[in-house]
Amino acid sequence: MFCTVGLLAGFPLSAQSPQEQNMTQIHITMSGSPGAEFSAHWRITHEGETTEHIEERGTVPAEYTFTGTELEGTVKLLSNDERLEVDIQKGSNRSSSSTQGAGGTLTVMIR
Question: In the predicted model, is pLDDT for residue 14 greater than 80?
Fold first, then answer.
């Protein structure tokens, strides 16, 4: 299942120049054990406003794209004996984290 969120809190990606888009587009890729279940809570800040996106029960693989200047997130692996990898990219900044086993929790931030 792939989820793409291109419009969040009224900030369409297409309303920005390509350079601005590169600096405010945040792309998240969830990979690991196919079918692994996770929950995620994303807080996206853009132009001083913070919005939230909550995924109560997502499955790997999944992708999300948000518009923002900063992202904070908490991701929890819900499946037993599975692996979850989270890759976040914003412009030239990249953050990668992984966890294994039910209850493994990742806290991520990118600016």
Answer: no
